[in-house]
Amino acid sequence: xxxxxxGCKVMVVVTTRDEGIANEIGTVQPYNLPxxxxxxxxxIMKQKSKFETRDDKERLEPIGRxxxxxxxxxxxxxxxxxxxxxxxxxxxxxxxxTNHMWNLSTSIDASSRHEVLxxxxxxxxxxxxxxxxxxxxxxxxxxGQDMNKDDLIHQxxxxxxxxPSSTFSNLQLGESYIVQLLEMSFLQRPKVGAKRRLYGRxxxxxxxxxxxxxxxxxxxVMADEFNLAGPNCRYAWLTDYMKPLKSxxxxxxxxxxxxxxxxxxxxxxxxRDAYSPAKYVRVLDLSRVNSNELPDSIGQLKQLRxxxxxxxxxxxxxxxxxxxRELNYIDxxxxxxxxxxxxxxxxxxxxxxxxxxxxxxxEKLPHSFAKLKQLVYLNLSxxxxxxxxxxxxxxxxxxxxxxxxACENLRGLPEVIGNLTDLRxxxxxxxxxxxxxxxxxxxxxxFIDCICTLxxxxxxxxxxxxxxxxxxxxxxxxxxxxxxxxxxxxxxxECVAKMDCxxxxxxxxxxxxxxxDDTKCTANLGLLEHINPDxxxxxxxxxxxxxxxxxxxxxxxxxxxxxxxxxxxPQAKRxxxxxxxxxxxxxxxxxxxxxxxxxxxxxxxxxxxxxxxxLPNVVxxxxxxxxxxxxLPPLAQLPNLRVxxxxxxxxxxxxxxxxxxxxxxxxxxxxCKLEEVNIHxxxxxxxxxxxxxxxxxxxxxxxxxxxSWAESVSHNVASSSSFALGVSTTLTIKSSEVPLxxxxxxxxxxxxxxxxxxxxxxxxxxPEITWALQSLKSLTLxxxxxxxxxxxxxELTFLQQLVIKRYKKLEELxxxxxxxxxxxxxxxxxxxxxxxxxLWLEELTSLRKLVISSCDAITTLPNSIQQLTNLQELEIxxxxxxxxxxxxxxxxxxxxxxxxxxxxxxxPSPSRMEAIPAxxxxxxxxxxxx
Length: 930
Fold this sequence. Notes:
disordered C terminus
């Protein structure tokens, strides 16, 4: 097992016999792992081992294929073995094939899971000792837990696992260890699109996870060193933080790393001497708890090197923290009450990482700050008013990462920025106006040129600066330049605009504001000539001064653009007529998402009226705030249209859902792929002759769409017409001033299964309307001033899900709801006048889920709830008057048959972020894309 000395340095690494490890792993439950063919496993091994570059590959191939068979179709096994075999001799390949570990794993269990364990054990055997230490430490994180690359490397450094060589720094070595573990598949990157839980710092994250089987191996290697209850625990993940540390572990003095974790939002209150027994701890991570203070004993941790304690509100502990001279990593982001840093910070000679972002009360950096010569990472973003930044930076020549977003006292920064020769990442978003006394663009160009020519500079973020900026040609040397939200870019060299976005990891400039120059006959639209981004939003088109300027950007040739938004201010004066301007803004045929906003023309140019030939690939179309538009272009020409949004078009009267092709023939097969239609605040709109097919409709503040239909349609028409709404499943209607019994649209939706009605005042129905809703499976009624629920709700006997939300005057449920024999889910949310649930509740025999939320007047649940034998889930949230009833044992017995119960009685506080620890709350968000 891994052993670490009691002193400050890591001692030798002693590995247990592999047989013992294999036996321990054998107790873990099986995994469902995808199976590959032996041939594919061999191809993976060849790639990982760089097999094709070897001179002896003909001799090695039979051995390699035998090893690939032992992988039993598991990619993880092939990847780890392939990497391990790289640069190994013929004899070593043969030794791997005949290694006794294969027999051990097979003798434990013939399942493929143990074959991969055998391969992992073999790969682990060939690890160098330093890498075994770093790998095993990852076992402290629970399965599936994200690991932040930078944090992990700094923890390795703090624990002494990484020591700098004469050639490379400890950070560089830590990076190389990460690469090696990735190549072996002992670490993996999260899947693209997976939901990750990030901790809210204003910084970039590189995250890794560990496969469950690899995690089991790491745990077995660690043996009892991660077991808090054991006598040899050195690395602890502590969730029961309410207990004194002495009662949680038998030997707290052996602890070297301590991660405190909370799974609720309650502030953590530390005992005064909480950590004094762990006097040799080197890593203390409090980033996963909601804590406003640190224990007094923090000052006794003289060996502490890594401290992550964000959002601290008690500034009195700072002096103790900055007396810990061994610290090389400090994260105090979001600590609002920090106003000053003590002069003693300058004595922390080994400090490498300091995060003071979002420390909004921080006033000044002390003079001694300039002594932090080893500082590599400094983040002061959103610590707006701190003074002394340029003076402090002058001598910090090892800085690689510097965050100054939204800092307001940066005069003098151009004079010192050239000293930071190791700088790789610089965030100057939201702050350019605070750097210069005036706004001549040559100042910004020289300043940015100085940054871009720093020898190691890679990533410059200048986003969200409303200040004149000139980009120099030297910016083309960067790997990444971020300019989104910069509305006054006065110059963008062609060499920068043409930078390959892939090698740059993306030139992020999706939003461009047109600015008119009063001294010239043109605006700044010409800056778009050479850029070809994936997304482009052109704002303030009313400032364009000539059609020639629009032609010069060659919009139609920008084949990379997948999303384009053209935006005018509807109220602003124009230099060029909107229709004439739009005539020149023909997008590329590859466009998939198209938005027109603020266009005040009455009609459209020819290319819009023939839109199917110009934009055949559009899948999403949005037209918003077109006040003078009376009829739509022939959208039925778009063969791939899936999502259509019409919004705030007060003058829109007609939507012809067919179009003529050939000699007066009508193509009725259009809109065959339409999935979602949103019609919001188009009060005059009539749709003729038929509603297109769509699976989801949202109609808001558009009364004519609801009433402008025939009284009814025959069964044959509704079922056979290709343009009937019969394929629709979801309909949302909001803010209608028309009573429900006039919604003739409902006669045309025979297949409707999900209906959501919100903020509609008159919901009294008619027998015809009720008949039209007989296929309904789900109904949501939200925000009504009515004191009674309409009787027609109880007539929907096929209803399976019912949500009643924000009926603040509702006092009781209608008696005929007892007819809902197929109802499976009932939700009552913010029905503050509802006094009780009915006694007939037991008659809802199919009910599986019951949710009662923010129903203040309910004091008891009916006894009949215990007769709901199919009820599997019960959620009660923010119903404080129910607490006394629930606490009685006899009433808990009535709920004993319900498998899943989630009970929370306290009233929600609008000012509190529920269930989100303060340490995970973000700094101010970046400006969102439209």
